[in-house]
Batch of 3 targets.
Target 1
Amino acid sequence: MSTSQSPAGDTAAPAGAGRTGETLLEVTDLRKHFPVTAGLLRRQVATVKAVDGVSFSVRKGETLGLVGESGCGKTTTGRMIMKLLDSTSGKITFEGHDITKYSPGRMRPLRRDIQMIFQDPYSSLNPRKTVGAIVGAPFRLQNIQTENGIKKAVQELLELVGLNPEHYNRYPHEFSGGQRQRIGIARTLALKPKLIVADEPVSALDVSVQAQVVNLLEDLQDELDLTYVVIAHDLSVVRHISDRVAVMYLGKLVEIADRDDLYERPMHPYTNALLSAVPIPDPAEREGRERIRLQGDVPSPLDPPPACRFHTRCWKAQDICKQVEPPLVELSPGHMTACHFPENTTVSETDVVAKAAVSPEVD
Amino acid sequence: MSDAKRPAETLNGGPAEVNAGTAPSSSFLELRDLKIHFPTDDGLVKSVDGLSFKLERGKTLGIVGESGSGKSVTSLGILGLHNRRNAKVSGEIWLDGTELVSASEEQVRRLRGRNMAMIFQDPLSAMHPFYTVGAQIIEAYRVHNDVSKAVARKHAIDMLGRVGIPKPDKRVDDYPHQFSGGMRQRAMIAMALSCDPELLIADEPTTALDVTVQAQILDLIRDLQQEFNSAIIMITHDLGVTAELSDDVLVMYGGRCIERGTANEVFHEPEHPYTWGLLGSMPRLDRHRSERLQPIPGSPPSLINLPQGCAFNPRCPYSDQTGGLSTSERPELRETAAGHLVACHLHADKRRQIFADEIRPKL
């Protein structure tokens, strides 16, 4: 467990415990259930369990990658961290403060510290405002006095993200996709945040421009000591920028580990399948590669499979997978996975899973 | 160089035979100096500006390039889907002995769907939301085959089953919105394949899909190609997908082909600085890349005002090593090895040396 204030001693241990570095953000058993209503009286008929018990922590200065297929709840998790969505239950701790129940008013000063980079650089910038107004908005909203006026501050920001400061008076449509994403990043950086939640920051960009933005994010992290939570479906990008990676499936965390550990020694069958599905840009390797092909689609989060949610598509599934939900356990230092029959692991570790699954105090 | 998989006839075309006149092509598909220009108020948009290639049945050609490089315009041009009032099409397109650019709309319409078909990127907007999936496949089939509705329906169910839709006899009466993204893409493929086309053009067929579903769709396309011996043009910006499926690869930049060769040549011995840039920008899943990504500086050019000389010269780190040729003269597509064509002013020996010394170690 991290050395800093840890409010979650009695609940499920946050993933990534036992590592150095101060914890900046801690998420404990976070849930978001969306009601489905029908009929004249808007009676609730079902619940979409978009996020269903997710725990992890993010240390200062690191990048946590959150990956999974569409509908797995990664964006919902990001929005709950941002407090753009209220969580159904669970706890979000930022710098030791429990911000879960903060009102919008109390949240406002904290918004300086937690910022977001959006996916679509076309719809996340107001087309009727100049770049200067867009990037300067955070200063005005937060009533922050800048040393040489807002304009100077904005121009410095534009320069920081590699844009021409003289473009202050231009409109978003005059910029290319990559440049717009830089404008969005400049706005995000305006108030010197500590934590940035980046939801698919490069997936709308061409590959050559994508690399520019990835490098920019890395440079800014070094320069400004930023902490990132990067939500992405592109496993190659996540491998490149993350220090640790968390894999989600149907609202649950199935595996979390250090980057290299996860990509070289994936334990959860789903992670294995996900990694083997990514096409490798090397025609010489297409013959020899061992592929795991999952059948069908992700089940509906309206009615997720009981116990282990992956059992309907898992080739290793046995009876226990349909009856007992596997807890997220640390099988090697810093490497946690929720599976009864993990891959790339020894027999003794498998026993740990079996014991943890049986012992009642875990759940 | 590995030429184990080189199709004997596909790539022996050099620029010399581009202007070979109007002799019918012996290849299954051949483009000769295809130009597609759009007159606009701002000037002439040269989306495709002199593209030539050949493709045989049973083979797959991967076309890669960034947005605005002319990939999709080429594919729509082959299918004759440009409005002749807005688009100026010149050059020749030979499909199995028929020239399509000079053919009447009625002639092309009869070929479209039957001899050539297209899988579009976004199945939700490519399918009509008002008609059932089955009705749309039946319509496509009956346009080209004089059969009864019942026979066509049976065929539609058969096709849906072939592409892996569960319970095809029930799902045939579903509307597109009732299908998941992956199933919709399968239904699109079923529709495209309903008349056993000899030429299949897939324009970003998996871009909107999750990786596990993408892997299923790529497998499906591969299997169906073996079954029908179709020629496939695979248009994508994802180099991984290209490497997975293509026999030959054509790299486009600014409306022109800048490099063409077998997949092995383009991925292992690329000779154009833009191809190097694409490969260097790409984060890798299969190996840990400690170095930074090597993005291409700048952004893709405007197709109205292409840079003088080589269209890539403003972004090319080696353009100063050609004695000014890069900025004054457009490089022709020249054969650098049998079947491997490159449009670059750098001397071939110099290119290979730069690749071996500077580029390969960083890939």
Target 2
Amino acid sequence: MTIRMKLLVGAGALLSFAGGVALAGEDSAAPEVKKHAVPTSKDGDLVVGLCDGVTSLEVDGVKEGQKLTREQALRVSGALMEQWLKKNPDANWDPAPAVAQAPPPTKTPEAPRSPPAVPSTPQKPSSGGTMVGGGVKPESGGKDVKKQQGANLQDGHTYGAFSQRDEAIWAASTQAFVEEGNRVFHDAELLGGTVAVSCDMCHPDASNTHPETYPKYQVQLGRVALLRDMINWCIENPVRGKPLADDDPKMRAMEAYIYAKRKGTPLEYGKK
Amino acid sequence: MRTPPGVALPLAVLLYALTGHAQPPPKQAVPPPADLPPGVSPVLWKLAVPEGAAPTPERVSLGQKLFNDKRLSVDDSTSCSTCHDEKFGFTDGKPVSEGVKAQKVTRNSPTILNAMFNASQFWDGRAATLEDQAKLPILNPREMGQPNPEAVVAKVKAIPEYQAEFRKVFNRDVNYDDLAAAIGAFERTLYSGNARFDRFIMGDAKALNDSERRGWALFNGKGRCNTCHAGNVVSPLFSDQKFHNIGIAAHKQDFVKMAREALKVVRTGDEKQIDELALQTNFSELGRFLVTKQENDVGAFKTPTLRNIGITGPYMHDGSLTTLWDVMDHYNKGGVANPYLDGGMQRLGLTEGEIDDVVAFLFTLTDERFASQGTKRLAEQRARKGQRPERDTAVAMGKKGNLGDLAPNPDLDVKNPAAIGVYGTEASVKPASTKKP
């Protein structure tokens, strides 16, 4: 998110506060956007902040600016989470899934259409087949037409005659988008992070992301946030990357992945 | 002619019960070749190649021989490749095709490239599969002119090399189904998806120049091309495989009268009769209606793939538009009004510069294998840019007629929406530059 976009979001928030006062806030200064300022280490060690905006951890022996390996990053994120859970014993935080987390997807540049790395989201039976009745479909030739003569079926070709082929293409396209999100979610480098921390370290298999609860007031941000705002907050700390634009394909793919992981959960905006 | 509703409903339910659930997707999909190019989707491959139709090397080689053999026609003058010539991207480069005795048909030859992925074959979808399709031109009096399948089989059987090869490949005597299966197998090797566009969408931002990238944005935005020419990582054909009336033949037909007359002539769903009506009579212009007899299909033709579109002109079902500039002019004015015009047809308000950009983008869909053809055709089309019979700027810009308002469009100099994963999942495409052209 560029500074300009942040200002726009800020102005939008101000407008909604003003409650209809016509464009009053347009020219005035945007409210300050909260930042998580992590303390600096005496020894110049790397300090990684957690997304609660308070907790942070000094990594002994690693200087600021140095890179972490995935193993080190896993230890750091684990220690941060432990600290946070100690501070917030009553937090509504689901324990990590009992099953071992799937290995992160490969990140060879030749494979941008990521192979499935985690078990694909179980599909409800409703997601295929039910729309297709009998009748003439786009792929029907003369023979099928002959078969259906006399049956007064609706046959609008533009939107009416979707077939199993169409549905298979839709399902596969959606799944490809979700898998791309899966890949980004597991890849600190793609996220633009500098310390090897990726989303899956605190949110294995997208657990505890609660996409269904947005929009909601996020104390760390000091404003009402959408899921993408929270993703960006985590990208700043602890991932240590630059926030993504709202329409960045990586952001869109991650949203797709996180929502896909919560299929069947009722929407409950504003939930704490 | 219509059944009373009381009969129709139970019939519909019965048909639904019989067809709706009795057609599970093929159980064992044929595995796609390992070396598919980036613009060919393995998922679509599996959907498009049914069990038992795998292109085995033996079938392909027999099919290729048949495809190029003029002896399949009645007077040894015409082969499949006469109208589907590799030199013209597997079309013939003519407005409408010519068969035996230099007879003209009424339709433009569509490319075989990626035809294997079509949901149905022919401009009106009158054949459901490649195999069904392959049988018809051989028997059409104006194409290859054979009187009936038996005559074709007899003629092929009399050629010793074929007799031996059919026995080797299919383990039985020459017959019409096997002949079509062999040709179908050859056509299943003619996939194409190695275009400059594919390099772009896989993350090489420099594969397209500024004009082409603007064209891609217009394609997905102001031009609204993607509504029907839908391109997607799973179905990268740039076609929805549906049928739309875009008003190509409307200025020379009274569609209403013609549809009424056609109903008297057309028997029920006989592919051979439709084939002859489609290629020899004025009823050709009724398009999908000849197949379905549904009023909303009058004048509707299948959305063709845009892959290799630069080298497969002239355009439209009747080859009436010579260049892609003509095609853009047609769409820019919202097509030609007629009672069955697709609701999506509205003026686009594209400027000359924007039309140039979209055409530039369309030429990036040419497979690298045909790159030199692409360059040649682009030069030819550009040379005709002054002749624009379809152009109606007043209508396109909303100064004449009443074809609706346009939505505001993003400023491409600020941001090119084509850079943000419209095509599907690609996260790696970055805008190469944002500087003004």
Target 3
Amino acid sequence: MIQDLITFIGRFHPLWVHLPIGFLIIAVFFKAYEVFGKRPAMQEAVNFSLLLGTISALIAAVLGFMLSQSGGYEDDLLDIHLVAGWTTVIISGIAWWVNKNEPRFSKKLNYIVLGFMILALSVTGHFGGSLTHGEDYLTAFAPFGEKQKETKGRVLAKVEDAEVFTDVIQPVFRSKCQSCHRPGKTKGDLNLVSYETMLKGGENGPVFIAADAEKSELIRRVTLPYDHDDFMPAEGKKPLTEEEIQILIWWIAMGKADPKVSLMAADEEIIAWAKPRLNILGGEKMIAVSIDTVHLKALEKMGFRVRVLSHESGALDVVLPSDAAKNQASELLKALLPIKDQIYWLSLAGTGVQDADLNQVAQFSNLQRLRIENNPISDSGISSLKILSKLESLNLNGTKVSESGLEALSEIHSLKSLYLWNTVIDSKVAKVEKMKAEGVKVVFGN
Amino acid sequence: MSHHHDAPLRSSNRDLQEIEKNMDRRRFLTKTSLGLGSLALGSLMGMEKIFAENPQTPPLLSESANGLAGLPHFMPKAKRVIYLFQSGGPSQLELYDYKPKLMDLHGQELPDSVRDGQRLTGMSADQSSFPMTASAFKFSQYGQSRAWVSELMPHTAEIVDELCFIKSMQTGQINHDPAITFFQTGHQLPGRPSMGAWLSYGLGSDNQNLPSFIVLVSKNAVQDQPLYARLWGNGFLPSQYQGIQFRSGQDPVLYLGNPENYDGKDRREMLDYLKSLNEVQLDTYGDPEISARIAQYEMAFRMQTSVPEITDMSKEPDSVYEMYGEGSRDPGTYAANCLLARKLIEKDVKFVQLYHQGWDQHGNLPGGIKNQCQKTDRATAALIKDLKQRGLLEDTLVVWGGEFGRSVYSQGTLSPDNYGRDHHPRCFTKWMCGAGVKPGFTYGETDDFGYNVVKDPVHVHDLQATILHLFGIDHEKLTYKHQGRRFRLTDVEGHVVKGILT
């Protein structure tokens, strides 16, 4: 609650900051008018503007601090912005004090303080802008700056059309290499703008040797220690990430540097990494499930232990400790219904849940791991679990499950491990053998 | 500034009101007497929390229990870890890293090309001869994974299909204390938080009644190399994240029981009063250590009931003791600690750290290591089997290993039936097991001399990054700002060892 309120108030920071900027700058203009225009009466106006500027800067700083509490800002930039902001507050306060008591101090001091104030204000503003708009916002379109790169590749109809070089590697080159290796700037006589120009190589010879990633100059350069003279990208520019290097290595080694090799030929891991980076027409967006913290807090009050597994998918791990269940398990389970699709892991071990309760558990459609060991559960309850199509691990230790209960479980094709310790089931029966043959790890006691 | 003066008193208790009043006048005087110039300064003082270690306001107990916002960074595999630290540097050459070629080379000088200028410890650097030494123990292959295990570890040999061996561990440290400190805190010099402290700081606790990080040190080990509490310390993290050592014997946690002739009935009342007193201080100074202290008193209060419960072994059936070995009946032994570790894991304690010392066989290695294995092998294997049958290996990670390996050359004279081995940081074997790691798998290779890694080296920081990864943590993102810099467990290095993940 308090945190939300702080964030709410903090979000007025971007609005408010323009006030001190205006007040402090107008104070300098008034001062100039006072001095050059020989209007000593303006001194009052300078004073008043500086006072307003100081107070509004102080408020802006406090709001900024509140906003920073909500997180999500780049730490280093935030630090500079924060220190610069408070410096502005202090210097503008001093400027006001000095100006107000001008007869006591030299005029020179007055000007110096105002100068520093404007400097601090500019630094604060610049880094504040970098925080919200990104570090290259100001320079991206400047005539002297490097042009903004289009990092996304061409538009594709479907994933299967993607080519490793054109759709994955080219965008990496564009964002990380082509600021130097492009027509007009070809550093080291290397132009990476297309496959053909890359084939020509640079002043140190070819860029790669097909099917031999280790001997390829490109791979050597990007995997050297950062401080090595030959390391690329040079001059402290953003290095390639581990995944980007992996895909380059794969393309040269396994893809034999073929410009047309399909992404689908690559390792699963590479595909998984590259997929979200492709520019697929009408591509599906990940729908994040929001996590209802108020409801989770209520569940915790009831004795559940709830832990977020993934903020992206909203997946939750829910545990009902046996001593918190107090024979009320079936009542308590009802409270889980509002989050039924978010429960990925669930433990009800030793809570006294019964067959009827498993009907509810069966509604938790995304369940992957289920622990219901040491409960008075029998085959009829277990058979209701067969609709859990994502269940990977099921713990039935110390339950009344029997051979016929296994029948229902064999319908869960996602099942990878099944625990049957302290049950009446014999480890040698045919049904168990069959499940093992289908790749399920069936565990009995030792 | 006068609003400080008029602020309503928080407490309804008259004693506390008195304290608040005193505090208020003092604060009023210091902050206002210097005039308006100190206004800015005063607000800066209030900002000290931004520039100091802890940018967050100290979390309340219930919040800290759930860890940091935004964690885990991605879907975890593991919920808990048992780290079986074999302190002293167990010899990989006698246990898991089978080097048959050494039998032919036995007694020959270690070639300089293999040693390649490697620095040696002061203990063997003066030796005139470095005779290569084959293991005195036989190796066989076990399980479906055909893993090599020596005859010293007959019980571990039974569970190799659950284990993921990393034969290519490497460290930069050559002596015990820096090497263990490096493994547990990510830096060879003391002062950084330990891995367990990082995990409880990041992920919080899964059981409000027990600490999330518990340490057990074997009492039945040769205590030749000391262990220090800082190996499970919180470093610069708030102190409620430090590991709590459970000792063997009557009092598992010191000063937890009520004093003699005190029935403890008004303990709760006393703690409530103390808490409100501490909160007045916290309100005034905002020192995170005060909130840590409050949290620790509360935890200690709950531990007054939870600890005797968990350390009560009377409910374990005889079959369990048979499984873990007879030593498990004697609290404080490695076997009993393994059993206790399983009980703690069942209660969702996040990090259980065992230490077993005495693996430092500079001389008389065959006898020494045999003794070590007899004390640990059976219980280690029993723990894995027990976790497996209970279904706990699904989300529990077990790590076994020491701080470095041992040299291929004999330290001291190589005699037909006796030899020793010096420290060796360039290669050694660890194994992991359970949540998210490949079972029945071997990763990395060493050369025929057992001296250098030839394939897939795994550095200490890589192992730490991998363990954090299994908990859904990006090791580069779990940081804490201290002395103007953001620190993390893996310092500026570490790569997740993807090859061992399922």
